[in-house]
Design a protein that fits this description.
With 122 residues, the protein is an all-alpha fold. It contains two helices and no strands.
């Protein structure tokens, strides 16, 4: 192996040159964890997650949850409805008509959900 001036030795070629650097003074202890964020103790009294009446964050979350559940119900009806309707109509063209109608309802449901979500955020 040819050594060139100023080249560093290979990682496995021997001990590191010189003494180990001094780590300095002991680091400061970690600050105490925030009890409001502790997963075991629950939220601190009076915190945003406490469910205090009049809490705007909790009210917004509740409205968003109700809106999401209504949308899930509409989607479930949209998924289950066409096959049930097609069973009652013996004509095979009913599937084509229902399939095309479902696409329009999907688009309408998406637009409606977007508008409601934006209105809730205001």
């Amino acid at each position: 192996m040819n050594a060139t001036p100023g080249a560093t030795p290979d990682a496995g070629s021997g001990p590191a040159p010189g003494p180990a650097p001094d780590p300095g003074p002991d680091p400061a202890p970690d600050p105490a964890p925030d009890p409001a964020l502790s997963p075991t103790s629950g939220p601190a009294p009076g915190s945003v997650r406490d469910g205090v009446p009049g809490d705007p964050v909790a009210a917004l979350a509740g409205r968003q949850l109700r809106q999401a559940l209504r949308t899930v119900g509409a989607v479930a009806a949209l998924l289950a409805g066409p096959p049930v309707l097609a069973m009652w109509v013996p004509d095979p063209r009913a599937w084509v008509v229902l399939s095309l109608a479902v696409q329009g309802v999907w688009v309408g449901l998406a637009v409606l959900q977007l508008r409601r979500a934006e209105r809730l955020e205001r």
